[in-house]
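=== Structure Prediction Worksheet ===
Name of assembly: unnamed complex
Input type: mixed (protein and possibly other molecules)
Chain count: two
Listed entries:
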Amino acid sequence: MSGEAAPGTFAAGFKDGWYRELSSLWPGTGMSLKVEEVLFQGRSDFQGVAVVKTESFGTVLILDGAIQCTDRDEFSYQEMIAHLPACALGRAPRRALVVGGGDGGVLRELSRHASLEEIHIAEIDGMVIDTAKKFFPQMALGYSDPRVKVHVCDGIKFVQDAEAGYYDLIVVDSSDPVGPAEVLFQKPFFEALHRALAPGGIVCTQAESLWYHLEIIKSLAAMCAEVFVGGAVQYAFTTIPTYPSGQIGFMICTKASPDAVPLDARQPRQPVPATPAAQSYPPMRYYNHAVHAAAFVLPTFAQEALESSLTKF
Amino acid sequence: MSGEAAPGTFAAGFKDGWYRELSSLWPGTGMSLKVEEVLFQGRSDFQGVAVVKTESFGTVLILDGAIQCTDRDEFSYQEMIAHLPACALGRAPRRALVVGGGDGGVLRELSRHASLEEIHIAEIDGMVIDTAKKFFPQMALGYSDPRVKVHVCDGIKFVQDAEAGYYDLIVVDSSDPVGPAEVLFQKPFFEALHRALAPGGIVCTQAESLWYHLEIIKSLAAMCAEVFVGGAVQYAFTTIPTYPSGQIGFMICTKASPDAVPLDARQPRQPVPATPAAQSYPPMRYYNHAVHAAAFVLPTFAQEALESSLTKF
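=== Predicted Assembly ===
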């Protein structure tokens, strides 16, 4: 190879033994990780896939140049995006769907919930699944649960084709709204999610950083409020060092139920699940009921920007 | 100059128009900011001082290579380290002391509290004060309050020499526990803080990141519990993109009062202060009473590590 590597690739950010994560989504700033070994570099039909071993964060998955998860801090994101909606539900969930989430971490967290009878995943990129199974066994163990059914397909089409009212719980574990995941931040997808949810059901989507993407979040919240009429739209966040700005948030939308008022997702209603008996399951390390409630408390600048779009309780 | 710049200096991290913040306190990882202009580089008797204009975080103060504050996100740290203790107090504070904090941001926040009659600051490095007044007017406006008295001196000696029981509130706005601030994390200093506090008074100290420095925090909490006998030792944190891992915490210690049970600092008791009439005062953008309570809710991994040292309520 010669010349400059293309922007938005692993090669563009890898220099002198360090990987620096640059993107138009966080201009003028970038997280760097010291790389001990490049374990894998490939390109699927959808994106660039890289796996590196780092000095301080263990093994790291990088898609189109963006850090997706690291051994050391992935538990924060995976636990929160799964248990915030699962524990907010008014009833123990029976059927769950993950859109994206090919690394398996959300599956691992959902599979802690004994009430679930079916856990579907619609991941567009089979290379992400294969990569997780090879390099991230502690996340990919979610795939070993017999309730999990894997669909390697377009997540939007999968949700549009789903039986109306089928899912109690949908987790959208997408990458950033550039590249293949862009459509996962748009109205047709949220209309399909709303349709696929049972009354009183909840969808929780990856929804960027309050510090870097307040305008994106504001637009997303306003769009969700148009779709989840009679239900609720709320926002929560978690801390995680290797995501831009050190935190990432979630849009949590509840579908109206004819026989109940909209749920306030700030209140956990389901117990914290026990660690499954399988020896390889790690204990939960981030989520608890106090963290659940606190995750919805926003700094004043974010509260003021979003309050007109979020549901008031 | 020739050869490699010394570690722990601005020059060591500045390359190709970017500043990368490296330190033994966060090995193998580093935040990078794109620099538009180097506004100042100097060396005081205590540390290297640099000021740069960045593409996305405005003007940035860097001491011994570590990012201290940026125009864009300093309000999070300054508001939280000042108002968490000020609003937790059982009575409106009359006398406050800032140790360190030469940039003036904590003074700005404390000066919002109308009940304060005296606000002392003991900053060891006059160059930091001069630099703030020149390059960070929105922080340095704290110095314009007539209740503020500036002492350019060793903070430990100042606290040791203070009248016993004089202060309702002490904020220790230190840099990291390497270099000049190392002693500000040690027992003799905390014994002096305890002595200088009035019964029921509170000290709030910069106390690093739960994600990167859990062992330092654990030792600090255990030491504080030895000093604040009969009082309380608690931990809270705030989000801030340009500090390592995207968050920073505070050790909040309350001195026992003979006529009251120890205060639980999680509960705000004083009103959120109004913005002073002076036109240059910005509105508060992070702290509110809900944020106050939520700041003490720790992720499970941190709660489990610290619970034996922190006060139970």
